[in-house]
């Protein structure tokens, strides 16, 4: 039996932040990162909350790759404040931290109160300010254990936001490098969901749409951050890809990206982007020239090529043209095309590569990869992506 669901109510388009003035509650806990406060963007949120006569408390300690410690601090503040609604505004880091804060506090609170009254449900609203992770509609939260330098993808339906608000105006301040990184994260989500062992007709439809939107709009958003039409399309693509992978899950690309990000603190989208051509080549596993030689994954990648109008008269050509098109986008985004170019030192990489492969193989995302990898194959893939060979 298979299933598909979208639990999160999505508000989008002009005026969607007005939803925050109609929450019908007294206390709103806002989780965000320091940039939102410094840039004044947070005012758009607090003004709407105030219109609805609710009090608010802003917790703005979230930094990229949020740690267990920051989650615990947020939990303490939120419970003391007695929030009825939690609003996360920021990139994937702020939304993921808020998910963990909400979910863990609910568990603690319910344990304390279970003998006294029924479970209290806190409403959770996610407002993404990057077009990348799709975290506003997923049951994933990626939290970093700084003591071990490992990023853990937590997966539970408790983490799903009740509502998401997509306001592309909030994304116009994203610098072009982050636009590129996060946009490639969207593409990786959609492609991995499409070839996942848990893909279905429902997730395919979403993944195909997200891939098309990225190919049509990412470069425009990168070149001109104020191109609101391209920003809106990328914001939708991010959310659509999020729904796809929330149902189909991801693959080895993310399995490796989590541990590389945990060890070396390079932006998540950038790592995904660098790995993507190598992972496609590995999964497709092109050997012969006859249709019986082609793997299921190779056929799926070739379908992706078809969807975006790339040459794909046979499966081999389809896979190759998809890899070529991704490499072209990387060049247009002025992105490094190897892990080495991101600044990771060769001696550090060599020391960590075997351990990274053994952690990547056990990552939740790797379990739905279309090809089951062996540890030594992951080592080879990591080395290829590091040295660009
Ligand atoms: P991020 O949240 O880490 O933010 C990156 C930088 O962008 C930060 O410095 C932030 O201040 C800045 N920023 C955010 N919005 C901005 C804006 N509007 N204008 C200017 N600057 C802005 O980046 P991200 O790529 O959105 O999130 C990455 C995190 O999400 C990683 O930890 C990754 O593992 C996780 N992730 C989660 C999921 C999920 O489903 N939960 C999926 C993929 C990735």
From TrEMBL:
InterPro entries: ADH_Fe/GldA, ADH_Fe_C, Alcohol_dehydrogenase_Fe. Keywords: Oxidoreductase. SUPFAM superfamilies: Dehydroquinate synthase-like (SSF56796). Gene3D superfamilies: 3.40.50.1970, Dehydroquinate synthase-like - alpha domain (1.20.1090.10). One of its GO terms (molecular function) is alcohol dehydrogenase (NAD+) activity. It comes from Clostridium estertheticum. Residues 8-167 form the Alcohol dehydrogenase iron-type/glycerol dehydrogenase GldA domain. It holds the Pfam family ADH_Fe_C. This is Iron-containing alcohol dehydrogenase. Residues 181-386 form the Fe-containing alcohol dehydrogenase-like C-terminal domain.
């Amino acid at each position: 039996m298979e299933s598909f669901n979208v639990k999160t109510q999505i508000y989008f388009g002009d005026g969607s932040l007005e939803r925050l003035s109609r929450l019908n509650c007294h206390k709103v806990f806002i989780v965000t990162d320091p940039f939102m406060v410094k840039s004044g963007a947070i005012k758009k949120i607090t003004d709407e909350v105030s219109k609805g006569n609710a009090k608010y408390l802003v917790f703005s300690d979230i930094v990229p790759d949020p740690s267990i410690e920051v989650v615990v601090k947020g939990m303490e503040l939120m419970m003391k404040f007695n929030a009825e609604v939690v609003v996360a505004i920021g990139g994937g880091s702020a939304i993921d931290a808020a998910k963990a804060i909400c979910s863990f506090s609910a568990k603690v609170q319910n344990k304390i109160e279970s003998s006294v009254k029924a479970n209290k449900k806190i409403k959770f609203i996610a407002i993404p300010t990057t077009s990348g992770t799709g975290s506003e509609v997923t049951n994933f939260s990626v939290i970093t254990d700084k003591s071990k330098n490992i990023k853990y993808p937590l997966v539970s339906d408790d983490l799903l936001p009740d509502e998401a608000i997509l306001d592309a105006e909030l994304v116009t301040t994203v610098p072009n490098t982050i636009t590129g990184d996060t946009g490639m994260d969207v593409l990786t989500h959609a492609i991995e969901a499409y070839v996942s062992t848990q893909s279905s007709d429902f997730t395919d439809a979403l993944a195909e749409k997200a891939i098309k939107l990225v190919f049509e709009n990412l470069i425009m958003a990168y070149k001109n951050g104020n191109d609101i039409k391209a920003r809106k399309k990328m914001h939708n693509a991010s959310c659509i890809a999020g729904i796809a992978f929330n149902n189909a899950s991801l693959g080895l690309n993310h399995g490796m990206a989590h541990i590389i990000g945990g060890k070396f603190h390079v932006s998540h989208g950038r790592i995904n982007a660098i790995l993507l051509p190598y992972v496609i080549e590995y999964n497709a596993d092109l050997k012969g020239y006859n249709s019986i030689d082609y793997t299921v994954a190779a056929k799926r990648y070739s379908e992706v090529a078809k969807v975006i109008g790339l040459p794909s008269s046979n499966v081999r050509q389809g896979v190759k043209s998809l890899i070529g098109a991704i490499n072209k986008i990387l060049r247009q985004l002025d992105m490094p095309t190897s892990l080495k170019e991101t600044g990771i030192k060769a001696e550090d990489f060599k020391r960590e590569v075997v351990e990274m492969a053994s952690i990547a193989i056990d990552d939740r995302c790797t379990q739905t990869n279309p090809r089951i990898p062996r540890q030594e194959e992951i080592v080879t893939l990591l080395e290829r992506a590091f040295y660009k060979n």
